[in-house]
Amino acid sequence: MLDLKFIRENVDLVKKALADRNLKIDLDGFVRIIDQRKKVLLELEELRAQKNKANDEISALLKEKKDAQAKIASMKAIAQNIDDLEAQLKELDPQIDKIILTIPNIPHESLPIGDASQNKVVRSWGECKKLDFKPLTHIELAQNLDIVDFNRATKITGSNWILYKGWGAKLERALINFMLDLHTRKHGYTEIFPPFLVNRASMTGTGQLPKLEEDMYRLKDDDLFLIPTAEVPVTNIFRDEVLKDEDLPVYYAAYTACFRREAGSYGKDTKGLIRVHQFDKVEMVKFVRPETSYDELEKLVHDAEEVLQLLGLSYRVLMLATQDLSFSAAKCYDLEAYAPGIDKWLEVSSCSNFGSFQARRANIKYRGKDKKLDFVHTLNGSGIALARTFVAILENYQQKDGSIIIPEALRPYLDGKERIPGP
User: Fold this and answer.
1) Which of 149, 154, 218, 249 has the fewest CB atoms in 10 Å of its CB?
2) Angle, CA of 282, 388 and 184, to the nearest 5°
3) 385-401 burial, b if ≥16 CB within 10 A, otherwise e?
């Protein structure tokens, strides 16, 4: 979240950020509540000082066996005023807490302003594959090869859930292990295997709540949520903790299943593996010093890009415009892989810098070399997400006979096999 003092001193900047995101929040009304709270606090401090002084004076009068009734009456009046002001604070604080959690991060000045149509392609890698035959879609390929059973997944759970089988399950597992090995062995990340359920405080700390609660799966009898991404449990590892300067930066990589209701997106990309309620993902999370966070973002993007390069998948990197930016992010790059069967670019990774926004919500600080406390900057990125990467591999590596060539980087994880046999 944003700092109250920052908001009060930068009202025009925050208003511009809201306008750039196309959001309407009564910021002037919020500032009035902030000012009212500040006024009440100042009055409280003054009255508490008066009460302490009166207490000392009453004690002195009683010690000298003098009449203290007037002072006692005066102190009672002060105490009543203190009670009244504390009651006002109890009304103001929840209002501030509720509103502050709805105000998004400030977009970085380098971002294009506007909706998704303004997203900027900053670079691309590889050539979009041109097949010398009419390519099949991943749905046709998966059904022909019997590696994804869409119908039985629907029977077991419902629409837009996945049942991998045989080579499909092996390929999924190979992708996960390949990515974890790459990030931990080459890129310097420590592997984490976190819980797949988190509490409300964790979801609030990373910014999914309260804004996105309708998109989350929540347990009926416990206030716990199935994670939408490993970002949530991994970032919250250090919630309410103080890190040492010499321990920064911290790099974590985690595989988890991810669960999203996708509320409000019914009818959009609902066939096959493009938009599903459960998917696998390897996530990269960083805790860094503020002055290095944007350099760390660029390195994070390159770590995700290397996955796609080693898999031989053509992709492009987009800098997201202000209205396409997530609630908590200050800057975000999306990586999109090309899938020739459906002739679409598929988002397979989002890499974001949140600045101190998440750290302030989750109370994650570090003690610098000057011994002062400050909030860390947090970053995360998909490194990378399935099932869309699974789609891109099937569609890019399909052969005329219906078989699938296995990318070289994955062959050590699949007993050295070079292809998934055709039907």
Assistant:
1) 154
2) 20
3) bbbbbbbbbbbbbbeee
Angle (nearest 5°) at CA 259 between 253 and 263: 135
Asked whether the beta carbons of 144 and 423 are under 8 A apart, the reply is yes
Longest dimension (CA), the chain: 107
* Contact between 229 and 280 (Cβ < 8 Å): no
Q: How far apart are CA 393 and CA 168, in angstroms?
A: 11
DSSP 36-101: HHHHHHHHHHHHHHHHHHHHHHHHHHHHTT---HHHHHHHHHHHHHHHHHHHHHHHHHHHHHHHHT
Phi then psi for residue 136, to 5 deg, are -90, 155
3-state secondary structure of 82: helix
| Band of pLDDT at residue 58, cut at 50, 70 and 90 | confident
Boundaries of every domain in the chain: 4-100, 116-420
Domain spanning 116-420 has what CATH number? 3.30.930.10
365 to each of 289, 290, 351, how far by Cα in Å? 10, 11, 22
Tokens, residue 69: 């009734």
- CATH of range 4-100; options 3.40.50.1000, 3.40.50.200, 3.40.50.720, 1.10.287.40: 1.10.287.40
Using an 8 Å Cβ cutoff, are 77 and 50 in contact? no
Angstrom distance (rounded) from CA 191 to CA 282: 10
**Residue among 359, 324, 354, 327 nearest 102 (CA):** 327
Query: How much is the mean pLDDT over the chain?
Result: 95
